[in-house]
Amino acid sequence: MSFALSPARPLRLPPVLAAVAVLAVLALPLAPGGAEGGAGPADAVSALVVLYAALRVVRERRRPLSATAVVVLGMPVVGLAVAAMGAASPGAGLTGLGRYLQVFVLVPAAVLLLVRDRADFRLLAWSFVGLAGWQGAVGVHQYVTGTGASYQGEEIRAVGTFGPQDVMGMATVVAFGLVCALGLTLGRATPVRHRVVAGACALGLLLPLALSFSRGAWIATVLTCGVQLALAGLRRALKVVAAAVAAGVVLVGGLGVGTAMLQERINSIGQVTDAPDQSVTDRYTLWAAATGMWREHPVTGVGLKNFPAYRDGHASLALSSGSDTEGAGAAYRKQPLLSPHNMYLLVLSEQGLLGLLALAGSWLALLVCGLRGWWRVRRDGRGLDCALVGCGLLVWQLVDFAYADIGGPSTVLTAVVFGAVAWWALVGAA
């Protein structure tokens, strides 16, 4: 009889941790002005993630993607290649092409390959919640201590570690975390204690989202949460709405969060046509300029990275010289308006109908496949939380693209989101 001990089995970490590493890097503070015009640390890590996923495919000698996944994720390449040839210089064309491929093709495909099952997907969703909690806590501290970005003369705007150069960064991160937390809360397959924790996280993230003063993030989050509640069922929807109302009463009435500035910001959502402020006026002017570029170049657009060069020739005198940024450790500077702050119009102006149909067609295909997956799991509920997270993230991003576009240190987070959405839509729902 042998008493020899069997060798210990090596600990194998899930491959999805490579994608989680991108989120971890986004939790680190940026130097003032850092990664504003070029690649940042998270972009470098995302490149390593793509390389790691490719090496795993070669080592395992397996078919990496299904035919459907190749078509859906590869659709934007055609329009991007044509628009890159129309860029002002080869360098600008390659830079723009690389950025679009990173955000909408390469990193999403890598995340799709690294997520093995629904447990990995839930781990990625919890990572979004964790990053949102950290950035939200930093943002609330900035508001309380008056060390945030400048807003109406006071340094109270919550921007997290992204600083005023990416004023939408924290709002985007917190919104993604809130959407993930709500999806995990509404699921039925996970233990009750996990759902309770997720629900508490969702309620807690409401405060930093409000203190971001981001109207676009508010609108996208409200619409997305409404969609998630509708997909989860009436009974769960009523419970979550009641909890959200109670949390709102406590925050506004008990803690005094409803400051005059916050109330004014909320009221301004309904005044974007009657008495818009300068930021809204600039946005309308940029939208009109993008539309004018498209009319002159309807099929292929003006070329990648060419919006700033054509802007002044199509914008009216109502456009200001730029937006003022200050606070959160950064000195005052005038940030130029180099994009229309609308992803659809940016693609339409620079890539024309060809690029918009290819890119939006890819997103629409993901949405249809994701909703089809929700339809499959809606009864047994074993993957309902994953369906709500996957569909919710995509809905939020598509709504937010009406008010924002890619750019800044937080852009790589959008790439990871599309990877998570692609996994649920193309693999996880089966």
Please tell me about this protein's structure.
Strands 1-2 form a two-stranded antiparallel sheet. Strands 3-4 form a two-stranded antiparallel ribbon. Helix content is 66%, strand content 4%. Helix 2 crosses helix 4, helix 6 (169-186) runs parallel beside helix 9 and helix 9 (215-232) runs antiparallel to helix 10 (234-254). The chain has a domain at 66-273 and 337-428. It starts with 16 loop residues before the first helix and ends with a helix. The protein has 430 residues and is mainly α. It has 16 helices and four strands.
Given the structure, what is the number of helices?
16
Low-confidence stretches: none
Trace the largest sheet across and list its strands: 1-2
Q: Specify the overall morphology.
A: globular
What percent of residues adopt helix (DSSP H or I)? 55-70%
> How many E-type strands?
4
> What share of the residues does DSSP label as strand, in percent?
under 5%
SSE string: HHHHHEEHHHHHHHHEEHHH
Average predicted local confidence, pLDDT: 84
- Main pleated sheet: 2 strands, antiparallel
State the end-to-end distance: 48 Å
Radius of gyration: 22 Å
The secondary structure category is mainly alpha
What characteristics describe this protein?
430 residues; mainly alpha; two-stranded antiparallel sheet; 16 helices; 4 strands
Question: How would the blueprint of this fold be written?
Answer:
Layout: H1 17-26, H2 41-60, H3 67-85, H4 90-114, H5 118-145, E1 149-151, E2 154-157, H6 169-186, H7 192-204, H8 206-211, H9 215-232, H10 234-254, H11 260-268, H12 278-296, H13 307-314, E3 323-327, E4 330-335, H14 343-377, H15 384-400, H16 411-428
Antiparallel strand pairs: 1-2, 3-4
Helix pairs in contact: 1-2, 1-5, 2-4, 3-4, 3-14, 4-16, 5-6, 6-7, 6-9, 6-15, 9-10, 9-15, 12-13, 12-14, 14-15, 14-16, 15-16
